[in-house]
Write a structure and sequence with these properties.
The protein is of the alpha/beta class and 390 residues long. It contains 13 helices and 15 strands. Helix 12 links the parallel strand 13 and strand 14. Helix 1 packs across helix 2, helix 3 runs parallel beside helix 5 and helix 11 crosses helix 12. The protein starts with a strand and ends in a 5-residue tail after the last strand.
């Protein structure tokens, strides 16, 4: 396979993936730092490089509403957004998942107001973790590109049929220039295959009702069906990740482990911070501290079994959350990890850190100190803030 190596930003990488996917419909409204994705993709449309029907709407609420209409009509559908835009889609996200529509969303993680902030944290994506969408996190531009391609297959799988968002960290990945290995258009098209929609509201020979009123008689049955589809997605994501590796050379799982096999102390994080953590681990290993990293790639559905298996033998854990649950037991990721360990009867000292809100930088030395504190004092029950000004 003739791969092409380019210098691209995360936004360019996601737009390139969208071009190669060549969706039937894309409905979108611009918002920083995801605006570039649609700006670049609109140029592909204008230049005739895709056959996509690009719909420019008046808000993100309308964008997701148009995507639902498109997907319900049997069209392969993609959009992109960030932060307040994702929040404005909130009620429509639930409808998309309830109608089992495999819409793919390029989401650029950004803080939610207030105060007003345009930089990276995971508040927006975490706010939608119970909306019934598959959520995939990317460490870099390459993963953003690869995850967009896989998201199409995952969402459209007959055992899943749920919408999926592939996420990147705002500005850190979205506007950062990196090495990107792209694949031939024909190979991407061959991998995602032809879309065979589960239903088509425009099929007059087989009329159906979509979006009907469901009261106490069957509402919980609908939710149970979504729950079962999410459970099946765990297997599907792994299968498609393996197939992707065979075709394109890089295999993906639900999580990624970095030097965890012999690690005494393991850090858990999502997204771009994993790259910084890996650099910190290399330096800590030279100091004699056996540090390891567990990067969660698939956050929804939550891969509890794989996470517990990765963490069960270490001495202590530190979980870094780039979002705040405000008065919860810990950050959102830390809370779920603690619950997963508890369900398996494992009591493991766990530090919960909130960091990087509103784009606050995290440095190698700060990460090293998280490990050092675990090694010296062990985990503490209170939620800690990392990098806060005194």
């Amino acid at each position: 396979m003739d791969k092409i190596i380019l210098a691209k930003t995360g936004n360019e990488a996601m737009a390139e993936a969208m071009k190669q996917i060549n969706p039937d419909v894309c409905a979108a409204y611009p918002i920083t730092p995801a605006t570039e994705i649609m700006q670049i993709f609109s140029a592909f449309v204008a230049d005739g490089l895709v056959k996509t029907n690009l719909i420019t709407v008046e808000s993100e609420h309308s964008a997701m509403s148009a995507c639902i209409g498109s997907a319900a009509a049997g069209a392969r559908t993609i959009t992109a957004t960030s932060s307040q835009g994702l929040a404005l889609m909130h009620e429509i996200l639930y409808i998309a998942s309830a109608l089992r529509l495999p819409i793919v969303l390029a989401e650029v993680n950004r803080a939610l107001s207030g105060p007003i902030n345009i930089h990276c944290d995971h508040s927006d994506t975490m706010a939608e973790r119970d909306a019934g969408w598959i959520q995939i996190f990317s460490e870099n531009a390459q993963e953003a590109y690869d995850n967009m391609i896989q998201a199409v297959r995952i969402a459209e799988h007959k055992d899943v049929l749920l919408p999926a968002m592939a996420t990147t960290d705002g500005f850190i990945i979205s506007h950062g220039m990196e090495r990107l290995e792209t694949y031939p258009d024909t190979e991407v098209q061959k991998f995602i295959g032809e879309y065979k929609p589960p239903y088509d509201v425009l099929n007059l020979d087989k009329p159906i009702t979509v979006g009907s009123l469901v009261l106490t008689d069957y509402y919980i049955e609908h939710k149970k069906a979504q729950h079962e589809a999410m459970k099946k997605a765990l297997k599907v994501v792994k299968e498609i990740g393996k197939e992707f590796g065979k075709v394109f050379g890089k295999e993906y799982g639900l999580i990624e482990e970095y030097k965890t096999k012999d690690a005494d102390y393991i850090m858990v994080c999502l997204g771009s911070t994993a790259g910084t953590a890996k650099a910190a681990i290399e330096e800590l290993r030279q100091e004699g501290i056996k540090a390891g990293l567990l990067k969660i790639r698939l956050y929804r559905p939550f891969p509890a079994e794989e996470i517990v298996e990765s963490l069960k033998n270490c001495k202590a854990i530190a979980v870094l959350d780039r979002s705040e649950s405000l008065s919860a037991q810990a950050g959102p990721v830390a809370t779920e990890i603690k619950a997963a360990l508890y369900d398996k009867g494992i009591s493991k000292p766990t530090d919960s850190y909130i960091y990087g809100l509103g784009g606050r930088e995290i440095y190698i030395e700060e990460i090293k100190n998280v490990y050092r504190n675990l090694a010296k004092a062990g985990a503490a029950p209170e939620v800690k803030y990392l990098g806060v000004k005194e």
